[in-house]
Design brief:
The chain is an alpha+beta fold. The protein has one domain. Helices cover 34% and strands 33% of the residues. The chain contains one helix and three strands; from the N terminus they run E-E-E-H. Strands 1-2-3 form a three-stranded antiparallel sheet. Strand 1 and strand 2 form a beta hairpin. The radius of gyration is 14 Å and the shape is flat.
Length: 61
Amino acid sequence: MNINKQRDVEANMQIGPTDQGMVRIFIESQGVEVPMDFEPEEAEEIAEEIRAAAAAARIVK
């Protein structure tokens, strides 16, 4: 898998807390559902990585 390869696939993503105190990222595409649960600290690390990637993407543009 190459992160730079363009694909023509649509997906839905939902993010929210679970009743177990986890953060769930739920992705659905083409009939496949992928629920991913993270401890709050892990979710914060992911959020930081997304922010860093967004900042890097701004520089490329």
